[in-house]
Amino acid sequence: MIKRPMKRMILGSLILILFTNLSTAQEVTDEHVWKYALMTEVVDQMKADLSRAVNETIKKQEGMTGARYKELAGGADPANDFETKFMANIDKLKESRVSAIKSVNSDLATKMLGSASIYKAVREAVKDGDMKAKYEQYKSQIAFEDSL
Questions:
Q1: 52 φ, ψ (degrees, to nearest 5)
Q2: Structural contact between residues 108 and 42, judged by C-beta atoms closer than 8 angstroms
Q3: N or C: which end of the chain has fewer CB within 10 A?
Q4: Contact status, residue 31 vs residue 122, Cβ threshold 8 Å
Q5: Which of 112, 108, 96 lies closest to 31 in space, CA to CA?
Q6: Phi-psi region of 28 (alpha: psi -120 to 50; beta: other; left: phi over 0)
Q7: CB contact at 8 A, 126 and 36
Q8: What is the pLDDT of residue 24?
Q9: Residue 22 CB burial class (10 angstroms; 0-12, 13-18, ≥19)
Q10: Do 118 and 22 touch, CB atoms closer than 8 A?
Q11: With left for phi above 0 and alpha for psi between -120 and 50, is residue 77 left, alpha or beta?
Q12: Spatial separation of the C-alpha atoms in residues 12 and 56, rounded to whole Å
C-alpha cells in the first residue's frame, strides 16, 4: 500500500507530466508551420498526380470520354459491361493512390512534426491569423512547378 505522501508525489508528477505534454502540444513554431507547408505541398502533388493518372487512363481508353466518365462518376448507371469494368478499374486506381496518400501524410506528420498532436495543433493554427499568413508564404515558396 502506498502512503499518502508518496501518493501526492506520484499524483503531482503525473499532473506535471500531463501539463508539460499539453503545453508542448499547443506550442506551434515557425518551423512546425514550414514543415506542415512542405507536407501539404507533397500531398497536393500526389493528389494532382492521381488526377493526371485518371485523366490519362480515360484518354487512352477507346470508347470512353471525359464527359461520359463524369456522368458515371456522378452516379449515372453504366450502359454496359465495358463501362462497369472501366469504372471498377478507375476505382482500384483511386483506392490505391488514396491509400498511399493517407500513408504518406500520416508518416510525414509523425516523422516531420513529431506527433499527431502537434500535427493537429499546426493544422488548426494555420486556419487564420499570423500563422495562416506564414503558412501561405511558406507554401508559395515551396510550390512545385506543375510541368509534368
A1: -65, -40
A2: yes
A3: N
A4: no
A5: 112
A6: beta
A7: yes
A8: 46
A9: exposed
A10: no
A11: beta
A12: 61
Residue with cell 491569423: 129
State the pLDDT at residue 142. Answer: 85
d(CA 30, CA 50): 30
Cell numbers at 39, concatenated: 507536407
Whole-structure pTM value? 0.71
Q: Which residues contact 109 (CB under 8 A, 6 or more apart)?
A: 39, 116, 119
Amino acid at 11: L
CA 59 to chain CA mean position, Å? 28
Q: CA-to-CA distance for 75 and 98, rounded, in angstroms?
A: 20
Q: What is the pLDDT along the chain (148 residues), one digit of tens a residue?
A: 555 555 555 545 545 454 444 444 468 999 999 999 999 999 999 999 999 999 999 999 999 999 999 999 999 999 999 999 999 999 999 999 999 999 998 998 888 888 888 999 999 999 988 999 999 999 999 877 665 5
Look at the block and give the residue holding cell 503525473: 14
